[in-house]
Amino acid sequence: MIQRSKLTLLALPGLAVLALAAQLTDSSVAAPGSHAVVTADDDEEAGPLHESMEVIQKGMKGIRKMLSKPDQKDAAVKLCQEMQAAALVGFQHPPKPEAVLEGDALVDFNADFRKRMLTVCSTLVDLEVALAKGDADAAKTIYRTLGKQKKEGHDAYL
How many domains does the chain have? Predict the structure, then answer.
């Protein structure tokens, strides 16, 4: 059994890194072939998923204001990297399904959510590149794609 004791987000230039410190309570966890457990976020108003979505939402608002401001390029890139790290945290905590799902249906639900979060992270990397290169037109297009991904995700999971 893994108990998560501390979650640390690090944003490095050009790379978002998620460091997850875990306290192992069962020595069998470290055995060959063992896998980390992805846990559902049961609390809609607290918990890692909610917190990561808040970081992404605040980042979207901040970046929107910076899209056409080349002098704020470095701040926008840093914000993008923070959002990438938050998306990777969210990836680890799929929401609890509204309907009772079991077996393959639950596996599919969680896998779909995690794939969507990876797509968001990938899109955020594309946005980071456009911002770093000073390509405002591409950044605006990618930003709109993120908005669509947000709407699709909320329609599917809220």
Answer: 1
